Structures are given as structure tokens and as C-alpha cells.
# Entry
Amino acid sequence: MALSLRTTVPLLVLAGSVVGLTLYWQWPAAALPVVAVAPGAIAPAVSAAPSPLLHAIKPNQTTINEPVSLPGLQGTEVDGDLKADSAGNLQLNLALRDYLDYFLSAADQAGLEASVEAMLVDARGRLPEPALGQFIGLLGDYMDYKRASLALLQQPLSAAQQSTPQSQLIVLQRAFEQLSQLRRVHFSNAATEALFGAEEAYGRYTLDNLALMARADLSEQGKALAQERLRAQLPEAMRASEERQAQAQALNIQSEKLWQEGASEEQVRQVLALTYDPPTVERLLSEQRNERAWQQRYATYQQELAGLQGNGLSTADQQREQQRLRQRLFSAEDQHRVETYDAIAAKEQDSQPSEL
# Structure
């Protein structure tokens, strides 16, 4: 079973989420002297004395941009949150990771140092000691983890690793496990669970689901039952979201089957109305109508493209005519989708055994 774009997207997002901010990974070694945090990580400080890091950084609050004025963050509110518990220690949760990523997302436009300094200025107004010192130590760990994860995910794949759906799945499984181990090298178990627990739970569910769908020894009913068992292992909020997605996908498949069987729009509307309210029904019908029209245009495009490929044109002339054909049949917004469909079609054609 091939790994479709739809099924692999959640995991690729998981694997690729650390790649985006290239400047972010170029943290100068001397830019932030970080006090090492013990592997047991965010433990209460021995005393409430100000962190030595504050003396090392000392950002000038009269010149540092406020978060909303940083390039890339203008007009936005700070995402995530920083909080200390009743003992003054840093609270570990997903909001903390969102807070880190919010400021670091400005690194490409504002520069890494300006983004980090703005974050520290903001953090000083939110956290007491020892939580502030713990936060700065965690920031150093987070940066080190990002560098290491980028290096891991940039490792090239061999042709054999990409040749079959099974080998692709093995690559995804291995990358997931390596990333999971890397997090535990840089963070305590508590920090890993707080910052990445939900992401890892869904990543593991996605991988197990892909492996399940690839099994030839199970019937469709057996796969459906196994999927239910996998879904039951997800955290409650994530399970509810996944169940809604599965329901929507099943309904979409049912609607598509009705269209293929020649059902009228009113018949499809009645089926959708069993699950959705009237505004949602009309929105879904409009989306399905647009999608069917797009698929028809693509079928026309493929027919005309096949005619071009059989009329003796040179490769360069074929490419020019193909580009004109795309521009005539599709809007500018659709060009990338057409290119993606063409690439998938070419890959499928290349993978077919040649006739003797």
C-alpha cells in the first residue's frame, strides 16, 4: 500500500517542524552563556538568588524591541505562556514550547539575537526566580536540541530507502524513534513529556496506523477494529479530534461514491444533512462541486498532454507547450497542485515494469 500524501502529512509535519527557521539553528556559541541543567531537569534552584545568566545578558530595555514590534510579529499577541508554580519553579507544559517558538519564529526577519533578547525581556516581566533561571537553562537546551534535530532530519535518503512503501515506512519509523531519543538526551523525562508528549502520541498513532493499513493478512473489518484500538490509546482530546476526522473522511468517501453512481446533488445533500447543520452542508457541497470541476479539468489536461507527447515535438518544445497548457486550464493558485499531480503520475509511470 503506497503512503499517500494525506496519510503521511501529519507525520511529515512532525518530522519537519524543526526545519523552518534556518537562522535559529545558527546560535553563536558565545551569544548566551548557558549554565548546564542537570539531566533531572527543571529542578528547584538551591536559592532564590538571581540567575548568573541575567548578569551575562543584561538586555537594554530602552533599545530592545517589544515583541509586537519585532519584524514578523507586529500586531500579534504573544503565543503560549510562562508561569511559575506556588514554589516559584517553572511550570512545564505545551504553552511553554509555544512561547519559545513564538519569539524564535521572528529570527528569520528580526535576527536571532534580537528575537532572543526580546523573549528574555518579556520573560523577566513574567517569571520570578528561580523560574527565570530555569527558563533560561531550558532555552539553551531547546536551542541545542533544535540544532541536533536539524542535522538528523537533513541526512539524505538512499534510493533503496525511497523505493517501496515498506521502505518509506521504515524510514519514517526510524526517524521518529531517533527524534524521540534525541529529545530525551537534551531534556528530562518531565520536560520531554510536557513539551513533546502530545506530538509524540499522535506521531506514534500515525505510524502504527500506516503499518496497519499496509498489512495484507487483515481484512478490511479487521483493520477497522485495529484502528479503533489504536485510536483508543490516544489522549482524550486528540482521540475526539481524530474521531471527527475519521467520521468526516468516511462521509466524504460516501459522498464521492454517490457522485460516481450518478446521484443528484439533492441526494448528496440529504446524506450530509444526517451529520451536519445546513450551512456546513452547503459549504461541503460547494467544496465537492469545485473539486469535481477541478478533477475534470485535470483529466482534460492529461488528454491534451498525451496528444502533445505523441506528435514528435522535441523535449524542450513539449515542456513549453505543457506550460502553456497549464496556464490555459488552471489558475495561478492551482499551478503547484498540477505540478504535484504531474510528479506523482510520472513517478507511478516510472515504477511500472517495462513491457518486453
Summary: Residues 278-309 form the longest helix (32 residues). The two ends are 26 Å apart (CA to CA). DSSP finds 14 helices and no strands in the chain. The CA atoms of residues 165 and 187 lie 33 Å apart.
